[in-house]
# Entry
Amino acid sequence: MTTTNTSSPPPRDPAGRVPSAAAPSAAEPSGAPVAADTAPRPAAAPGSASAPRSGLDPERPFGAHLRLAWWKPLLIVPGLLVAMVVLQTVLTLIVVLVEVAAFGRDPMDASISPLMMAVMNLSLAAMGPLALLVTALVARVPWRSLIASPRRESLRRGLVYAGAFSALVGAALALTALIDPSAAGIGQFAITSTTIGLVLVALLTTPLQAAGEELLFRGAMMPLLASWVRAVRPALVLGIIASSIVFGLVHMSVDPWLLSYYAVFGLCMAAMAVISRGLEAPIAFHVMNNLIMMVVGALLAGGGGIVIDRSVGMGGPVMLVFIVVDLVAVGLVWLYERSQRP
# Structure
């Protein structure tokens, strides 16, 4: 009996050759499924047809990983800054009016009370999630990508940095107290109800305030500004410098030493974010720096409110100590991140 072959012959091109995609390999059964994405794909060159034109670009480093239409940062960045100023101004004015009416506060008193510290810190803390939400929605990216990219955020990484930075900031404050006690805010030690209130408010809200500023300036503003430039290195330079200048200006100091310090602080926080591919390091440094300064300032305020004076003459060469500490912290981040990568 003659056996009929019912299988169809493989397709051939006009020259009679069998296409390679139709021929199974010797090591793979003919019925096995073929995974289409197992082979690595070459990264699309910036500006090519396959490169993303908007949203998240995981091929670019953190800080320059967003691709947006040019007009979007032009709306988001000023909008966030206006929201920050309006929110803090309105809430601070409300607190002053309440304290004047309820506690007889002198309207010309520039010291920070526990209630005022709480309102100021929480208003800045609120700007962080707001900045992430607005940026994530407009850029159409996961909000987590604004905290760390391309890796995932790491609590352990943040705790390691917090421990190291607390010792570093504490040493800097001690050294400054020896060199120039007035510049370090060293006053008369006293504990009153105001002191206790300030310390408690600082412990509870200062970490939120510092984290909010980092989410705003390094998590949202830096990549937004960097998205105007397509080449990676110029984009990073623009994002780091522009966001740091804005960070320095919003502290509203006209003293050249203080203004320089705030700008360098912003530059160092941005550098930490780029090096570590996320915000854990700058958040940890910002939190420990502000927390230690506020607690020490409350304990040495003579039992009254904390006075923060940023007028001309309030800075000086002693600020170089804190600038050096910021630079050392960047070096520590670089060493740690280098040790963590294979």
The CA atoms of residues 40 and 59 lie 14 Å apart.
